[in-house]
Amino acid sequence: MTARARTPKNQDELLEYRLSLRLGPVHARQRLGIEREYEAQVFGQGSSFHLENVTAAPGLISFCLKLAGLFRRGQANSRRLDTAHNRFILPTLPAAFEGFRILHLTDLHVDMDEANLQAVLKKIEPLEYDLCVLTGDYRKLTWGPVDGALDGMSRLRDAIRGEAYAVLGNHDSIRMVPGLEDMGYVLLMNEMLPVEHQGEKIYLAGVDDAHYYKVHNLHRAGDDIPIDGVSVLLSHTPEIWHEAAHAGYDVFLCGHTHGGQICLPGGIPVTLDSDCPRHLGRGYWQANGMQGYTSPGSGTSVVNVRLNCPPEVTIHTLTRGPQ
Length: 323
Fold this sequence. Notes:
The N and C termini lie far apart (62 Å). The chain is α/β, with parallel strands linked by helices. The chain has a single domain (57-319), classed as 4-Layer Sandwich (Purple Acid Phosphatase, chain A, domain 2), CATH 3.60.21.10. The protein is globular and about 55 Å long. It has helices spanning 11-23, 25-43, 57-67, 71-78, 114-124, 147-159, 177-183, 218-222, 241-247, and strands at 82-89, 100-105, 131-135, 164-167, 185-187, 191-197, 200-206, 231-234, 251-254, 263-264, 268-269, 283-287, 290-294, 312-319. The chain is 29% helix and 22% strand. The strands form three sheets. It has a six-stranded mixed sheet. The chain is built from nine helices and 14 strands. Pfam families: Metallophos. One of its GO terms (molecular function) is UDP-2,3-diacylglucosamine hydrolase activity.
């Protein structure tokens, strides 16, 4: 028996073995290796890639907002979610999918603020939809324990009706995959699944995080989609918009930017933490025939405050246009 196929001897080996079976050994080794290296840097006071990993950052930002008299308002804003409605006009959409509704949730950071999670659960409860998709960032931090995030995601799964398809974001550990899948989330890790409705199909693809881990693979996710099939791609970040558009995807759903979260009056983001044009930072957009939507997300990061950028859950409706 080779070393790669040996029987796992401890919890870490068991996890790596299960992930290797699920994702393939290269993907599992790459993602786990980068996570371990990064966590060693965080705990060793090395380099970091997110503001929340600067120990003083949340307190400093909160202090400045309180000094300006904006903290309480911003916190209340973060718990007051909108339901946004968007239409994708797809002339080749199969007739059975006319009016098909997709509930889009992203950047939930479920262990960040219990009041926000409760607001999400309350907001989605009365909504009507045919399918739910989630585009990453379920954990508060980019490192450390996953139990709090998994607990919140379990409660969310209980509130979601029907199938729930998900991808991981840069805040999410690959260690969360078995737990999320055991809850009933369908993780799309550079994978595609056909979605059947009344005897016809569209194709739902999803890629692993393209922002920090760079483990996305659009080819692997999309190679088996028929050339004339309508495709929907889930990505945590909009940063791969250009390559996705040229790969031929019809619809691109993402998050990551939080729409800026703390914006200037008029919703002008101070930063989007994303290497993409600013017009892709929030809402509907188009590129090379592909239609996209960047949700500002339901949760918050660093501090549970939003200014001039309300959180949302999104209902996307697929249509062939005027009949």
